[in-house]
Amino acid sequence: MPRRPSLARIALTMLIALAVSAVAIMLGFWQLHRHQDKAAAVAAHDAAEGAPVAPLDEVIPAGSSTLPDDAEWRSGTVTGTFERETSTYLRGRPVDSTAAWQFLAWLDTDDGRSVLVQTGWIPQPGEAEDPQMPEYPDSPVTVTGIVRAWEEDDGKEATDSVTRITPAQLASPAGEEVPGYLMIREYCDAGACSPTVVGAQVPLPDVSTGPHLSYAVQWWIFAALAPIGAVLLLRRDAQMEGDAPQPATASAVREPRRARRAKLSDEEIEDAL
After folding, report:
1. CA–CA separation, 196 vs 185, rounded Å?
2. More confidently predicted of 120 and 242
3. Is CATH 2.60.40 the classification given to domain 51-194?
4. 46: left (phi > 0), else alpha (psi -120 to 50), else beta?
5. Are 38 and 14 contacting, i.e. CB atoms less than 8 angstroms apart?
6. How far apart are CA 73 and CA 270, in angstroms?
7. Phi, psi of 135 (to 5 degrees)
């Protein structure tokens, strides 16, 4: 017959199960929030993809301290002159699984603003080498690109290169800093137009919701199953304890000995006759 586990054991098992459920619920909501952020980014990307190319001043109005909500992924065009002394490159950022150098430079516009432009990328020939900076023209150029938001700073020190596209690691521009940067898609100088200043265009990142919603559902299912598993575990342990052989009592041990003593030997039987 199953034996009921002690109250302390039941309480401890259920407490652990509820703690596991609470953690799983929080992880599920974390994955849900990531899904919502990705879904918002996908919606913004889809909406901006169909919008026509517009002057950068219309996409990001002058005086903006932060990137407008509908600005990211828009196509903007701007005319200005590159600040050669601010040219730098992004390290540790492969392109299509290829070690790469991605080049960056501030572009000063005629209205006193400065926008950072991601001017292209080239394969990295060797880890110990430093890239040669592109030869930016002194004359005004027109750049068309995809607006992107600043990246979060990783706290690493920026020297002649950066690890994140963020003002915290970049040289200060001459004009009013435009929030966000441009991924170049067309570059036009006095002579002709080309897709980029140097190398090839940096491809846009994959924009999708990913598996976060399914992960959230999996965590919540696990949260629901944890208490059920604890109850089944307690029942199994109780069943195993009930089925275990019980230790023999003192009287049960003595009875066979008495039975052996009660049996007479052949000599005792002959003496009795």
Report:
1. 6
2. 120
3. no
4. alpha
5. no
6. 114
7. -90, 95
Tokens matching residue 195:
């897709």
pLDDT digits (tens, 9 = 90+) for 169-220: 999 999 999 999 999 999 998 878 999 999 999 998 877 888 999 999 999 9
Secondary structure of 131-178 in the HEC alphabet?
A: CCCCCCCCCCEEEEEEEECCCCCCCCCCCCEECCCCHHHCCCCCCEEE
Label residue 66 left, alpha or beta by phi (over 0 means left) and psi (-120 to 50 means alpha).
beta
Distance of CA 268 to the CA centre of its chain: 91
The pLDDT assigned to 247 comes to 60
| pTM of the predicted model as reported, rounded to 2 decimal places | 0.69
Asked if 189 and 107 count as a contact pair (C-beta separation under 8 A), the reply is no
- 7-49 vs 212-243: helix crossing angle, rounded to 10: 170
